[in-house]
């Protein structure tokens, strides 16, 4: 009875405190999400009264090659980004957790790009790729520096570079937190056992920062799939919509072609893809985590 | 007890949600009372006009014009509201109508807008302005013999050139009245690149799909639809009768352009390359004038001109000109309000005082007869106005393209064509297919 009374007391404060957040979450995320799913089964174009048309939008998507191309492009992009961001991010984290010169300065410098908004980053890098690269190429006759963002390939790598540059610092911070929480006695013990630094990293550090992988992989995965600003400001799908990611494709469908319902159907498919991949990824990486 | 706690919590949540609703309703009801107040004022005083327009650039000048008009007509009270310049005017207008405070005068863009808003559009064929409108400017807003809009202004494009570079190369721009003459001039300029100090002849911004997919294609699709936007709007298919000519024009601009064109954008084209004299010609319209003027006033005033946009086999010495937006009057308003709205628009575009404002303060190229060419302040606009009065123009049809088709299908494919990853035949067949699909 006493316990129950205590729970009641906690309960009221508990609910009071989370109510504003919960409420806004319901109003701006949950309810629109459900309404959105409803719209994907209608013929809504933004003006008319929506009429229920069943699965027609989803069936029509089968023949939409541009949409599937954008999904394929996004998947390719996600793979490249996840590998580069995590490998480089972890390397940077290893670097700045050593006792080296200017480590605090380097931490700040690596993290800084993450503070710039995606749209602005895209415009800045657009200038670097198109103008600076071209100027260097003209002066030095290095062929591969010319014509960036004018082909699908350079557009792809342009996007990967910008996104990686922005995300690496963020992921690095996560790795630093986990690396610094490793007890020094474990490292010392491995040293006494005669482990070299690679063995130390592979067999001691790596397993202990497995939870960091779960978090970082999840963040990079969902961010890569949901990327929009950088895509819009860097390439805008040029040339010929071949560097268009899912989100940009949805935006074009909903707001340029004014087919709101079709765009919504695409968004539902995108949600399913991200949800399935993320759940599998979290399940797999969590299994690898070790308890200390 | 715990159930009671949960119940209380739920109650609190509901209460908060409700309070949000109440406050939401509260502000709305005050809005409505305001609206009804102004309505009663309307019946007391003669007429109140609400204008809801999109052109941010003329906001202040239009307010001045309104003040002048109100001084002369004390019985008319005009409220101006402007939404535009990066904000979605169409969405704002829908919200305005849904909220119940419908404006008396608003803007429509072309056949698609007229179809959407038709139940709200008053017939304007009895206005003086409609009678004075230059031939062809009203086709996009005319249905069943009724005129639903009055043109804002004329805009047009062509090949804007640098006079100094042309005279240094010994080319007389007035002699370029055919596509072949243009090709010769381009070749001459290209052979003298070093002496002239230019990087290339053109700057062809294939990245901007509106330049290629809307404006460039418009020149070659206009003859197919007789320059009539309604024909394009109602057409189930597109033939590309002048497709070969279009290919020649793209090839010419692309080949002699600063490379790579697929990533060349508008500001690079206008400001960085043309504005600094690094290219001799660009395909653009009179809207670039303020930008060039802000870079170098002297250059903009004296050293630029516009060549016609040649379509071999159709018109080779003419400019594509059109109306970007129209004024519309709300047919649900009382007759005296509609009358006042028409009177105001007539005054603005056909009275001497209004004409002065339109050309000097709005800096418009007038879409109406009865203006003198000297009153237009920028050289590009003047050239377009003279061409229009001589009939050396052809109409804009891209407002009649299917949604998204011009930019996202044709313009996007042209990017792939200029970087070599798509053949011209594929560009055309895809564009035809997409048009037919959209108009099914």
From TrEMBL, chain A:
Signal peptide: none annotated. Its main location: membrane. Pfam families: BPD_transp_1. CDD domains: TM_PBP2 (cd06261). Gene3D superfamilies: MetI-like. SUPFAM superfamilies: MetI-like. Keywords: Cell membrane, Membrane, Transmembrane, Transmembrane helix, Transport. It is a multi-pass membrane protein. PROSITE patterns: ABC_TM1. It is found in: Cell membrane. The chain crosses the membrane at residues 12-41, 77-97, 109-136, 156-179, 200-221, 265-284. InterPro entries: ABC_transporter_permease (IPR051393), MetI-like (IPR000515), MetI-like_sf (IPR035906). Residues 71-281 form the ABC transmembrane type-1 domain. Belongs to the binding-protein-dependent transport system permease family. This is Raffinose/stachyose/melibiose transport system permease protein.
UniProtKB/TrEMBL annotation, chain B:
Belongs to the bacterial solute-binding protein 1 family. It holds the Pfam family SBP_bac_1. It comes from Thermoanaerobacterium butyriciformans. The keyword Signal applies. Keywords: Signal, Transport. This is Raffinose/stachyose/melibiose transport system substrate-binding protein. The lineage of its organism: Bacteria, Bacillati, Bacillota, Clostridia, Thermoanaerobacterales.
């Amino acid at each position: 009875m006493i316990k129950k009374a205590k729970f009641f007391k906690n309960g009221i404060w508990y609910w009071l405190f989370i109510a504003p957040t919960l409420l806004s979450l319901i109003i701006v995320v949950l309810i629109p999400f459900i309404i959105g799913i409803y719209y994907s089964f209608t013929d809504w174009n933004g003006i008319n009264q929506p009429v229920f048309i069943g699965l027609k939008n989803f069936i029509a998507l089968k023949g939409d090659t541009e949409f599937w191309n954008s999904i394929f492009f996004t998947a390719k992009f996600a793979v490249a980004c996840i590998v580069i961001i995590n490998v480089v991010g972890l390397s940077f984290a290893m670097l700045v957790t050593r006792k080296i010169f200017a480590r605090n300065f380097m931490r700040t410098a690596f993290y800084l790009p993450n503070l710039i908004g995606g749209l602005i980053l895209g415009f800045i890098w657009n200038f670097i790729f198109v103008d600076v690269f071209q100027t260097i190429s003209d002066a030095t006759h290095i062929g591969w520096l010319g014509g960036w963002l004018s082909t699908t390939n350079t557009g792809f790598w342009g996007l990967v570079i910008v996104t990686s540059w922005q995300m690496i610092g963020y992921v690095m911070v996560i790795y630093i937190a986990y690396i610094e929480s490793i007890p020094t006695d474990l490292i010392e013990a491995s040293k006494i056992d005669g482990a070299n630094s690679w063995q130390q990293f592979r067999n001691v550090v790596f397993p202990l920062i497995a939870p960091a992988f779960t978090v970082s992989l999840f963040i990079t995965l969902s961010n890569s799939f949901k990327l929009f600003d950088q895509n819009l400001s860097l390439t805008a799908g040029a040339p010929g919509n071949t560097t268009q990611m899912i989100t940009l494709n949805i935006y074009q469908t909903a707001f340029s072609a004014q087919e709101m319902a079709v765009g919504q159907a695409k968004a539902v498919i995108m949600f399913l893809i991200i949800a399935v991949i993320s759940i599998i990824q979290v399940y797999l990486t969590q299994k690898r985590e070790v308890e200390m | 007890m715990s159930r009671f706690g949960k119940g209380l919590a739920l109650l609190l949540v509901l209460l908060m949600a409700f309070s949000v609703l109440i406050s939401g309703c509260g502000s709305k009801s005050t809005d409505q009372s305001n609206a009804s107040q102004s309505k009663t004022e309307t019946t007391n005083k003669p007429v109140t006009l609400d204008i809801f327009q999109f052109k941010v650039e003329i906001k202040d000048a239009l307010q001045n014009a309104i003040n002048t008009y109100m001084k002369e007509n004390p019985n008319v009270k005009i409220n101006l509201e402007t939404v535009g310049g990066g904000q979605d005017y169409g969405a704002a207008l829908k919200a305005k109508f849904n909220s119940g405070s419908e404006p008396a005068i608003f803007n429509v863009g072309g056949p698609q807008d007229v179809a959407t808003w038709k139940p709200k559009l008053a017939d304007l064929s009895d206005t003086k302005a409609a009678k004075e409108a230059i031939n062809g400017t009203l086709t996009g807003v005319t249905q069943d013999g009724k005129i639903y809009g009055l043109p804002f202004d004329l805009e047009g494009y062509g090949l804007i050139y640098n006079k100094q570079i042309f005279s240094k190369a010994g080319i007389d721009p007035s002699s370029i009245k055919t596509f072949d003459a243009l090709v010769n001039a381009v070749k001459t300029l290209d052979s003298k690149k070093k002496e002239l100090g230019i990087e290339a002849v053109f700057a062809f911004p294939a990245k901007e799909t509106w330049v290629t997919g809307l404006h460039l294609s418009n020149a070659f699709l206009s003859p197919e639809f007789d320059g009539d936007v309604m024909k394009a709007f109602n057409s189930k298919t597109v033939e590309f009768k002048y497709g070969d000519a279009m290919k020649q024009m793209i090839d010419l601009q692309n080949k002699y352009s600063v490379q790579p064109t697929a990533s060349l954008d508008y500001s690079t084209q206008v400001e960085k390359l043309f504005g600094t004299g690094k290219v001799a010609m660009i395909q653009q319209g009179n809207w670039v004038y303020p930008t060039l003027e802000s870079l170098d006033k002297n250059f903009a005033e004296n050293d630029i001109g516009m060549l016609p946009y040649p379509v071999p086999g159709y018109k080779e010495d003419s400019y594509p000109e059109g109306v970007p937006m129209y004024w519309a009057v709300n047919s649900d308003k009382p007759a005296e309000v509609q009358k006042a709205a028409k009177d105001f628009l007539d005054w603005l575009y056909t009275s001497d005082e209004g004409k002065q404002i339109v050309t000097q303060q709005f800096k418009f190229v007038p879409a109406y007869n009865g203006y003198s060419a000297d009153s237009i302040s920028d050289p590009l606009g003047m050239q377009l106005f003279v061409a229009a009065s001589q009939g050396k123009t052809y109409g804009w049809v891209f407002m009649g393209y299917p949604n998204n088709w011009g930019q996202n299908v044709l313009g996007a494919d042209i990017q792939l064509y200029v970087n070599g990853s798509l053949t011209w035949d594929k560009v055309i067949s895809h564009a035809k297919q997409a048009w037919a699909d959209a108009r099914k």
